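Ticket #4471: structure output looks truncated?

Reporter: J.K.
Steps to reproduce: submitted the chain below (243 residues) through the standard prediction queue, then opened the result file.
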Amino acid sequence: MSNIYIKYTPKEILQILNDFYLLQSEYIGEAKRGHKLSFETTIKNWRTTCNLLEPDKLTKADHEYFGLTTDMAELMDILSNENKNTLKEYCEYIAQNAKRETITLRGSLGGKCLEAGILKKINENLKKRGAKIKELKPSDNFPLLFKKHPEIFEVVSKLAPGTIGYYKIKVNTVSKIGGYLFLLAILILIIVLIVHKASWFLAIPFIVSFIFMSIGNKMKDALFDIGGYKTVRDLVYGIKQRV
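Returned output as attached by the reporter:
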């Protein structure tokens, strides 16, 4: 079996950070949109932009995430000096010390196939993360897989940083109505509590909004596009272009 790669570059570590930022801002909604991390970004600005943990907790999380075997105090020193240090220092340190998994060529039709090796690695890593899935097939629907097992983001980003370049999601009309009704219910509650005493009638708008949202959650989204990949086969080819 042939090793395809075993080491990250600082640029690839930076891309992983941008992958996470994109997920947080466009999919999860926990970070402000419209930013891009660079080697000049200070640790402080990175933490603020991405709504990250405090330096001590972030040190522990990143040390484990990247499989570092170095003294945790070394990484803590970089992260704690957050106004002085930038992502250049951070990415260089991670690239030098991180453990990167390898992709091996797999036998296919009498030859060696990189695509088969990538698919095998995706399956292995999803199972390591506790995903209860059967072996993925190239024809499997990727957006549906992502929706059920968003942990595949981590698998893909660490195998080939930058593979997922965008998230385009529009909820269906029923879910959208449910969301508006929920906001309206909160507004009614606030107004009533200010001018009058609370009543059990206030529960009605919340119940109606939850009914709409529950129905909407069982319906297909109007748009659910993760990086333009429609099938697992598409994803595998996307990863192949970056390894």
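Triage note (M.O.): checked the attachment and the full token line is present. The CA atoms of residues 115 and 237 lie 7 Å apart.
Status: closed, working as intended.
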